[in-house]
Amino acid sequence: MFAVLTEIRTEWAKYTDHMDGMEKNFATLERKFRDLTGARTRQLDKKFDKIDTILDGNESDADAEILFPQLPG
């Protein structure tokens, strides 16, 4: 019986070590996802704000040309 308990404890330790590692991986993945989506969202929001400003007529023609270049032809 003692041998079986020792094997169970050994397997339990392996299991909890793997679960702890997975928890850390999930936490890292979540943090990286938030960093990525937060940064991209902020950058895109700035671009949309710039477009809104231009469309509202509150920006110079030079700025409009940068965002909306004239196509040839």
State the main characteristics.
mainly alpha; rod-shaped
How would you portray this structure in words?
The chain has 73 residues and is mostly helical. 84% of the residues lie in helices and 0% in strands. It has helices at 2-55, 61-67. The model has no long low-confidence stretch (mean pLDDT 87).
- pLDDT < 50 stretches: none
What sort of overall outline do the alpha carbons produce when their principal axes are compared? Answer: rod-shaped
Gyration radius, to the nearest Å?
A: 28 Å
Rounded mean pLDDT is 87
Count of DSSP H/I helices = 2
- Counted beta strands: 0
Beta-strand content: under 5%
End-to-end C-alpha gap: 88 Å
User: Main β-sheet: number of strands, strand sense, barrel status?
Assistant: none
Structural class: mainly alpha
Secondary-structure element series: HH
Q: Give the helix proportion (percent range).
A: over 70%
Layout of secondary structure:
Blueprint: H1 2-55, H2 61-67
Question: Can you describe this structure in just a few lines?
Answer:
With 73 residues, this protein is mostly helical. It contains two helices and no strands.
